[in-house]
Specification:
The complex is a heterodimer.
Chain A (H helix, E strand, L loop, with lengths): L2 H10 L5 H29 L2 H16 L4 H7 L4 H20 L3
Helix pairs in contact in A: 2-3
Chain B lengths: L9 H13 L5 H17 L7 E4 L5 E2 L2 E2 L3 E4 L1 H22 L6 H19 L3 H20 L4 H32 L4 H10 L4 H18 L5 H10 L2 H26 L5 H24 L4 H22 L2 H31 L15 H15 L5 H15 L3 H27 L4 H9 L4 H19 L2 H14 L6
Antiparallel strand pairs in B: 1-4, 2-3
The chains are: A mainly alpha, B mainly alpha.
Chain lengths: 102, 485
Amino acid sequence: MEYDKFQKQMEKEKHGDGISVGAGLTGELTLYSFLVMSVLLLSRVFSDILFAVIGISIIGIAISFMPMLFKFNRENSNHINMQLFWVSVFVGILSVVIYFAK
Amino acid sequence: MVKIMNLLPLIVVYPLIMAIIFNYIYKSKVIRILALLMALSLIILPFLGSYGTYFFGAHGMESGLISGIAYIFNPAKQIIIFTLMLIGSLVLITGIGEKRVNGLFVSLLLMGLASVSAVVLADDLFNIYVFYEIVAIVQTGLVIASGTEKAYKSAFRYMIMGNMAGSLLLLGIAFLLSATGTLNISDMHNYLANNPATPTIYGGLLMLIIGLCYGSGLPPFHTVKADIYARAKPFVASMLQTYSKAILVAIMLVILKLFGGLSYFNTAHGALIALSIFGMVFGVVMALLQSDYKKLLSYHAISQVGYVAAGLAIGTPLGIVAGIFHAINNFIYKSALFLGAHIVSQKKSSNLAKLGGLLPIMPTVAFMILCAKLAISGVPPFNGFQSKLLLAEAAMNVNMPELAIIMILVSVGTFVSMMKAFYLIFLKPCSEEQIKEYKTTKVSKYSIFSLAVLTILCILLGIYPDIVINQITPYANEIGRIWTL
């Protein structure tokens, strides 16, 4: 991820001033650190080497897709279709996780 | 011997009756006086009830089961309701200073306070559901009351999602009723602890979690919740976010009380921790991208919900203490921030690009807003520091340092976005014309008074956290379970 490209993208999104670009970068790094920490935590919870390998691959893929921030912002839009889509996904995953206890 | 009457139901009944009365009052002069009296009386309510279980209609126990509706009152619930009522009073006082104050606004606010108190107090799932729905309607009404087209759209979206989540919650309660044969939470817990789980119980748990996410604004409902906070008037948003956090605490404690310690709860427990982490991270990342001050604060409200949920989801006594304490702190500093946003938008706008140079115009307000910003970022000696420290300690105690690190990272993000907003509002140089415009615009003294009270509380609880922690600890010990990863 190059700073200049990131700044241009921020300008497109009307957040081009220095302090807002800095805030955007903080957001990007927070997202990435969250991913790393989540993979670490999940690997430890499930104590599975294969899981850890898959996790590391996800981290690698995430680096190649950086910046993730703008895609993340689009997915968090207020459009009702997008909201209903993500509600369905979350409810589906929650169902699997809870019934998994059986 | 004289038996002292337990006035506990007044916490719910008094604001509800007053809400009906205010609905019929139109003259603003009368409303202002009555609203001020109401604001003063609300603070007394949490001290009228006696600790213990209150049985409506004096039904009590019948054949070993609790018959009718029961409320449970203890010091932890008292302090939650007191803080809720205090914020309600301060929002009412701020509302008095508004030009177009009307009875409907006061009525909705009181109905919300009564309903949230009922959700916190009730030991009955159906009673919780009824008041949970009233809170959703009140929140929608308060957003619509701001009168803009965007607010109407936002409220409509919130209601659509609410229809789905509310229906699922009701279905979940029906599942649990069919599986256990009772609606009383204490009886239901006894049944669940002594009987094997069935798919109906799993379904009930799932739907309780969906209801929790909608009521509190945890993902996947974070965008719709942040939207209603941003579209309401900022001082009203302070009340909306307080309602949501109280609902979160109440329903999360219900889930812990019902399922805590049961073997099949482990995966759901993990899911709750994951949802809280999503809430923290999604909220702060979205906040970092905002150029509108109200939206920025709205997403931070979501992020802070994640913190509260994380503490409660950990489920240990320390985690529960940290979660409830953070919720109380959050009521205070987040309301202060929204009230600050109300003062700022009275001066000009909530668009950060249009603001700047406000520090010399209102240095005292700037100082109070800075205190609230430092409190939400977890900087000592403010209250946010004390609860965030406890949250990190609770995460470390269950051998989850990753969770503690995420909490710290999110705090750093919070600090960055808060300082960005502070710079753009108060420190950024602005033109002479803009300064003249600021000087001609007056700010309501009622708003400044409310902000001052909340700032004092931020400092007070930062220095003396035990005032609250000592009240919560016995209840947390009762519900919490010690475990480690």
